[in-house]
Write the structure tokens for this entry.
Amino acid sequence: MTLDLIGLAAGLVLLVAGGRGLVSGAGGLARDLGVSPLVIGLTVVAFGTSAPELAVNAIAAMRGSGEVAFGNLVGSNLANIGLVVGAAAIVRPLTIQSIVITREIPMMLLASLAALVMAMDGLRGDATLEFDRSDALLLFLFFGVFLYYTVGDTLRSRPQDTFVDQLEKRRLRRFHSLGTQLALILGGLVGLTAGGHLTVEGAVGIAEALEIPKSIIGLTVIAVGTSLPELSTSIIAARRGETDLAVGNIVGSNIFNLLFVLGVSAAIHPVPVPDGGLLDLSAAVVMAGMLWIVCSAYGGRRVTHAEGWLLIASYVGYVFARAS
């Protein structure tokens, strides 16, 4: 049990460090090769934000620990909205750009609904509730549509849409040495791989020792750990007054998790929906809807201190109810 806890903690540290190294090295290399900041923001940074979730889920899928993969993915999306956005709003009320409300949040809500519908397919017969390779194909298609729409819309509104520029500037560091960039990329990949293995093995060991479902460990401890990059980025952005970045970063990460990370996991090995999984997916839909209401209809393109506490209370309450 003690070794499992140490392994889990070490794995989460390696995941966070590996993701930061990969983003910094790949971003610097891409800019030196003449890739535009827009493309970097939509690819390297978007991938780097969800790199820990991708590493954990891919390794969990290869090991056949689908419950860990499911719990981590859904739990990360819940933590991103409830914990990360809530914490950022407590630091400073968040002013949201209209493009995040009209484009990003509705896409996140649609992706959450699509995942819920896919998970419910098995209710029509005796089939097992799971995300299989056919679901993975659909998720990849949705992800392709999302990228096409986002890139096209961003290019058309380039003078007004500064979100990607802000994201790229804040998440990437400039490294002039090619050797340093390559070392960061290699070190990041090694950190993500090693961290993913340690995290999955530690989580499985803890779940077996405590006789609790693996999905609960994924939904709570692993999910919060893999959401640390989003948490640090959003809080720093809120402190510096870049409050639209604090929300945009989270929404983009959730879409990437649902469409790409889940797709990769299901393509490697079918991801079963554990007991209570449909409830978790429903909670993700509700949290996405809450964020949209707070940002647009009720909040008037703002997330206030009180609404931040409401998001945190909703997240903490749900996690405690599921873990009990």
About this structure: The first strand starts at residue 94 and ends at 95. The CA atoms of residues 9 and 271 lie 24 Å apart.
